[in-house]
Amino acid sequence: MAAPLSDAVVVDVLRRVDRLLTPLATRLGRPPALPRGERERWWADEVSKVAAGVSAAPRFAGKLADLLPLQNTVGTAVQSLVVLGVAGEHGVEAPAERVSVLAKVLLDRDLPADRVQPLLTRTKGAYVEGTLGPREERTGVSGAAKTLWRAARLLARIDDALDVRPKGRWGARVLSNLPVVGVAGGYLAEREGLRRAAARTADVLEDTVRA
User: Fold this and answer.
1) DSSP string, 141-163
2) What angle do CA 33, 204, 51 make, to 5 degrees?
3) N or C of the chain: less Cβ packing under 10 Å?
4) At what angle do helices 7-27 and 95-107 cross, to 10 degrees?
5) CA 19 → CA 160, 187, 192, distances in Å?
6) How does DSSP classify residue 126?
7) Residue 146: which residues within 8 A CB-CB, separation 6 or more?
8) Nearest-angstrom CA–CA distance, 62 and 132
């Protein structure tokens, strides 16, 4: 059995995901005149229509996708984008707060911002390159698909922790295990998962304000 992931490893991965995806969330172009009450639904629905197709694509291989680090990582990368979008609607700007929200919504891991902050600057021994792979290098190639794929590669480093992410209905997830038609099931499951991720983000942030 693998050893539990340390806070340092989780924060290091999520801070990189945040740095990759927060600019993309900013560029997505949510209508500025949209009433506040409808903005979260926009992230849950409109973005889901595009993003769920990306995250469901690995299901073309059916159950084989579960044998590869694809479905959880790509799906979590897209959910990360929605989480960061909703967080932005709530005025969350500090990296430590965004990482804290990502950890709570996607990993069901309680990492308050005050615990995240000291870990944002990686120190010697925070993780082992040989275990987690080489650091990502910045490239000049743009595009949402490439950015999401890079985020998915980062999340593969903590793949064992991704099973608790928000998921779709059981029936759609069963269908997603079938070859070819699994794309349809994967799409439905991921779209519902994205809606749940958006709703859970809003709940987490509202609980934080009340606390």
Assistant:
1) ---HHHHHHHHHHHHGGGGGGGG
2) 55
3) N
4) 110
5) 22, 26, 25
6) S
7) none
8) 27
DSSP annotation of 123 reads -
Q: Exposed/middle/buried for 60, CB within 10 Å: 0-12, 13-18, 19+?
A: middle
> Which tokens go with 114?
């005050």
Query: Can you tell me the distance from the alpha carbon of 27 to that of 142, in angstroms, rounded to the nearest whole number?
Result: 12
Q: Is the dihedral of CA 134, 156, 151, 89 positive or negative?
A: negative
For 144, the token pair is 């949402």
Residue with tokens 């990492």: 111
Backbone angles phi, psi at 198, to 5 degrees: -65, -45
Q: Which residue has the tokens 């084989």?
A: 64
Q: What sign results for the dihedral spanned by CA atoms 84, 88, 90, 96?
A: positive
pLDDT score recorded for residue 102: 98
* Dist. CA 21–CA 136, nearest whole Å: 14
**Residues in contact with 109: Cβ distance below 8 Å, sequence separation at least 6, in sequence order:** 10, 103, 161
Going by the DSSP 8-state scheme, the letter that residue 138 receives in this structure is: P
Neighbours of 186 (CB within 10 A): 30
Residue 206, class by beta-carbon neighbours within 10 Å (0-12 exposed, 13-18 middle, 19+ buried)? Answer: exposed
Cβ pair 47, 41 in contact under 8 A: no
Q: Where are the beta strands (DSSP E) in the chain?
A: none
Q: Are 140 and 128 contacting, i.e. CB atoms less than 8 angstroms apart?
A: no
